[in-house]
Specification:
single chain, 247 residues, mainly beta, 4-stranded antiparallel sheet, 1 helix, 18 strands, 3% helix, 37% strand
Length: 247
């Protein structure tokens, strides 16, 4: 990040980090990409799709995937773990960075207000709390953001577009992670989340699902937790809404 700040201070030229784009042509290979952990489809123009790659940043297609272009190879962090689009304004998107399991440290949450052409880091996430942003979710009315974090940083909530955040859940162990958090697609007050903690006394993971009925301000654990003596099982939970859910 310091290097990027110094780069911005230099006079503009075709050269970036000693590389002149006008003098170099990519030689390939062109058939290898980083792991994709997020995808956004434009609801008005479905042929426009954004994907976030763990080691390759943000990519965009405008022809339903036939051709792709990088958004910005010089984005401050290319470990894109999760992305969301504001349902009330499709020009506004958020991208979370960092993946703790693979030790790819992120640099907070990035935001665009021009449909993905330019991105800037939310100043409120320029802290160690947001090194590993596992999952973002945004309410149906676009008023509330939820961020599930790793490294024991808990679940954070913003009601002002990411200008500031409030920690609404804090797991007990330092290695706990909020693997998933999801607002209901039409009910802005209803959300669910899944997190895991390690019980050092009994040597197993405890994975728990929690729910909120006030837009993520408060949370209640489900009535049961999944426990396993094998640390490679029953740790990570991901959630999906039943199509027939009515309230």
């Amino acid at each position: 990040m310091r290097a990027k700040a110094e780069l911005r201070a230099l006079p503009e030229s075709a050269a970036v980090a000693g590389l002149d784009r006008s003098r170099w042509t990519e030689a390939g290979p062109g058939n290898i990409g980083g792991r994709i952990r997020s995808m956004l489809i434009d609801p008005v123009t479905p042929s426009t799709i954004f994907v976030g790659s763990i080691t390759g940043g943000i990519w965009k297609t405008t022809d339903a995937g036939q051709n792709w272009a990088r958004i910005d190879d010089f984005l401050g962090n290319l470990t894109i773990s999760t992305m969301v689009m504001d349902p009330a304004n499709r020009l506004v998107m958020y991208a979370g960075t960092g993946e703790e399991a693979q030790t790819h440290r992120g640099a907070g949450i990035w935001k665009t207000t021009d449909g993905g052409n330019s991105w800037a880091r939310l100043a409120s996430t320029n802290t160690s709390d947001f090194y590993y942003v596992w999952r973002l979710s945004i309410s149906a009315d676009g008023s509330t953001l939820l961020a599930g974090l790793g490294a024991g940083q808990g679940l954070h909530r913003s009601t002002n577009g990411g200008t500031s955040w409030t920690k609404v859940r804090s797991p007990g162990s330092t290695g706990a992670a909020y693997w998933d958090v999801r607002f209901h697609p039409t009910k802005s007050n209803v959300a669910v989340a899944a997190f895991s903690e390690y019980d050092f006394n009994n040597n197993y993971h405890v994975s728990t699902v929690a729910y909120s009925t006030d837009g993520g301000a408060t949370w209640t654990d489900s009535t049961s937790a999944v426990r396993s003596t094998n640390v490679n099982k029953a740790e990570r939970i991901e959630l999906a809404w039943h199509g027939g859910y009515s309230g």
